[in-house]
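Reading a protein record of the kind used here takes only a little practice. Each token is a code from a learned vocabulary of local backbone shapes. With that in mind, consider the following protein and its fold in token form:
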Amino acid sequence: MPKTLSRSIALAFGAVFLASVALDAAPLLSIGVLAALTAFLWATLAIPAELTALLFFASLLLTGLVPDRVVLAGFESKAVWLVFAGIVLSEVIGRHDMGHALFDRLLGRIRSYRALVWLVSASGLLMAFLIPSAMGRVLLLAPLVRALADRLGLAEADPRRHGLFIAAVLGTVLPAFTILTSNVPNLVLMGSAEAIYDRTLTYGEYLLLNFPVLGLGAFLLVPLLVLRLFPGAGAISLPAARPEPWSRDQVKIGFLLAVTLAFWTTDSLHGISSAWIGLAAAVFSLLPGVGLLPAQTISKLNFGPWFFAAGSIGLGGVVSHSGIGDLLWGQIAAAVPFEGLPEAAKYAVVQLSAMLLAVFTTLPAVPAVFTPLAASMSQSLGWPLDAVMLAQVPAFVIFAFPYQAPPVLVGLTFLNVPLAQAMRVMGRFVLLALLLLSPLHYLWGRLLGVFP
């Protein structure tokens, strides 16, 4: 949608909101209009996402429609501090060129296009465990892959060039939705569950439920589809190059990331939140004398994702507090006979509802709007609250359009990949994932005792 049209529609939403406030209309109407405006602006990116979040905060704080503590609950969430940690750690990794250091070593003796596609996908997955920012990972890997394509002499018209780039972007983003610390929607789900239901999701339980099927499944499907849809001469010839020795700072970073990851994966044992582990790693990076970041770095970081995450969690809290979510789901529950549905069909209802919501918003907005509905859905479906909240996760992984995940859209645009070419892979991925990964995820969750 053109930005001029998006902004015109947003202005119309804004006018309705102001009129409802001025006329002292029902608070539910005003909050509903503002929530719709916020979701619309995030979906279209008519203005920067962080500015939309600030607009959302200011509108509610000025009008007093919702208590301040509800509006600003996102800033108290552990998830928001994990986003902060991701911003700092991404800066550390980028400043010390860890991307080149890791990628050049992984290239090794690669001699075929097939192996190279698997390599870039595996590199993206590896970075998802180490770098808690999808946008940071994409912006780190994309220049490396583009330089690699140039070194190989892959022309703009060569299908292998587009295939390599699509594998890099999708391989970096899709599997990471199953790693709690690695993508914004996961963190919004974590923060919303904490803010609304006082339920803290741990790194280990989230990984165990989602990674074995959804994460590994996405990692396998993306390269297979790329190689099928973007074939080319198999043999490649990389110019001989010897990786530079690890610098002292790179060794420090490697040790820091290894310790951080070790504490993340064992958080259910030691009881320290993954957010506080990430925050400790970020603070350590900023300490004078450590040498990983200059003292003035914190004043130059981009805190846009931090405000966006706080706004997403705040939106979820507002929707829950106002009762809008319960009202909407009540209408659906009255029309659909959930009591007679098989348990697997209930899982499909939750997932498809989240997927439909993701078409009209961006993925980070899905848990912000969907999680407040979980309590009402739990009653209608006869499912535990955890089961309903976690059944939305497949909708983070299985989506058809690049605009739904900003890091995917940014990565493809940066690499000059025509969106129609990316859609060839994404459309087939959605179909296969719905037929294979989604049922297997339900069966795996049922085996673990998460889903009924």
